[in-house]
C-alpha cells in the first residue's frame, strides 16, 4: 500500500524507540505503510543506555526498544518486540481491504501458512546471520571501537549466502516474501537487508535476480525512501 493512497489514521499510541536502530525501523516502515499517525514518539538513546533507566525498565522490564503503550485499551496495552508490534499495528490499524492489508487473508489458510513461513525464515535464518554480520562488520568497529572477528564473519557470510539463495528461489514464483502482495513479513527483512546492500555486503544480491527484483520493489516504495533518507541506522544493541 503506497503512502500516497492511504488516509491518515489517528492513534492513542506512545512509541518508545531509537529510530536509528534496525528493529525500530521495522515499526517505522509499518507505520508509514498503514498511514498511522503517532503523535507521542519518545526517543530513547540506546548509546547513552537510556533504555536501562528505571522509568523505562518499569514500563518494559526487558529493557529494549521499541515498545508501545496504546491507550485505546483499558487497561492500556503495553507491547514489546518489533515483529509482534508490527503485526498488532497491521491488525488494529491497517486496511480492512484484504488486498491492501499487510497481513494475509484470514480466510485463506494457504496465505496464512506462507506468511508464517516467511516470517519464520526471516527470524530464524536470515536475521540469525545478517544481524550478527552487520554488527561485526559495521556497528562493532564504528560504535563500540571493537575489533571485527574475521573468522566469525566468514562463517556468517557463508550461512547468509545459503539463506539468500533459498530466498532467491522462493521469489522466483512470487513478488513478495509471503506471496504476491506486500506484508509485514517483507518489512521484517528490510533494515538488515539495507545495511547489507549499502555497506556490509553490496554484492550479495548481484547473482540473485529474483531477490534483486524484490529489493527494487521495496526500495522504490515511499515508506523505504522516507525512513532511510531520514535516518542512517546506527546500532543493533538492545534491539529485539
Can you describe what's shown?
By secondary structure, the chain is α/β, with parallel strands linked by helices. It has two domains: 3-93, Glutaredoxin (3-Layer(aba) Sandwich), CATH 3.40.30.10; 109-229, Glutathione S-transferase Yfyf (Class Pi), Chain A, domain 2, CATH 1.20.1050. The protein has eight helices and six strands; from the N terminus they run ββαββαββαααααα. The protein has helices at 22-34, 54-59, 82-93, 109-143, 150-170, 184-200, 209-219, 222-230, and strands at 9-10, 13-17, 36-37, 40-43, 67-70, 77-80. The strands form two sheets. The chain has a four-stranded mixed sheet with strand order 4-2-5-6, covered by helices on one side. A two-stranded parallel ribbon has the order 1-3. A hairpin with a 6-residue loop joins strand 5 and strand 6. Helix 5 (150-170) crosses helix 7 (209-219). The radius of gyration is 18 Å and the shape is globular. Residues 108-240 form the GST C-terminal domain. GO terms for molecular function: glutathione binding; glutathione transferase activity. This is glutathione transferase. Residues 11-97 form the GST N-terminal domain. Keywords: Transferase.
CATH-defined fold name of the largest domain: Glutathione S-transferase Yfyf (Class Pi), Chain A, domain 2
User: Any idea what the shape is?
Assistant: globular
Summarize the helix and strand pattern as letters. EEHEEHEEHHHHHH
The rounded Rg comes to: 18 Å
Features:
240 residues, alpha/beta, Glutaredoxin, Glutathione S-transferase Yfyf (Class Pi), Chain A, domain 2, 2 domains, four-stranded mixed β-sheet, two-stranded parallel ribbon, 6 strands, 52% helix, disordered N terminus, disordered C terminus
Amino acid at each position: 500500500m503506497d503512502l500516497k493512497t492511504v488516509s491518515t489514521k489517528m492513534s492513542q499510541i506512545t512509541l518508545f524507540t531509537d529510530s536509528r536502530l534496525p528493529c525500530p525501523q521495522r515499526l517505522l516502515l509499518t507505520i508509514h505503510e498503514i498511514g498511522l499517525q503517532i503523535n507521542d514518539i519518545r526517543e530513547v538513546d540506546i548509546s547513552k543506555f537510556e533504555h536501562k533507566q528505571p522509568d523505562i525498565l518499569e514500563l518494559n522490564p526487558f529493557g529494549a526498544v521499541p515498545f508501545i503503550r496504546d491507550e485505546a485499551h483499558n487497561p492500556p496495552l503495553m507491547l514489546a518486540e518489533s515483529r509482534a508490534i508490527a503485526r498488532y499495528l497491521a491488525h488494529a490499524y491497517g486496511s480492512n481491504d484484504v488486498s491492501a492489508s499487510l497481513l494475509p487473508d484470514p480466510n485463506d489458510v494457504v496465505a496464512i501458512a506462507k506468511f508464517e513461513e516467511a516470517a519464520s525464515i526471516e527470524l530464524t535464518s536470515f536475521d540469525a546471520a545478517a544481524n550478527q554480520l552487520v554488527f561485526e562488520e559495521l556497528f562493532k568497529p564504528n560504535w563500540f571501537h571493537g575489533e571485527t572477528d574475521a573468522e566469525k564473519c566468514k562463517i556468517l557470510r557463508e550461512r547468509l549466502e545459503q539463506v539468500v539463495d533459498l530466498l532467491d528461489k522462493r521469489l522466483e514464483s512470487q513478488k513478495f516474501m509471503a506471496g504476491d502482495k506486500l506484508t509485514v513479513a517483507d518489512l521484517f527483512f528490510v533494515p538488515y537487508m539495507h545495511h547489507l546492500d549499502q555497506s556490509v555486503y553490496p554484492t550479495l544480491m548481484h547473482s540473485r535476480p529474483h531477490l534483486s527484483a524484490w529489493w527494487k520493489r521495496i526500495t522504490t516504495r515511499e515508506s523505504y525512501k522516507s525512513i532511510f533518507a531520514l535516518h542512517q541506522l546506527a546500532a543493533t544493541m538492545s534491539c529485539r
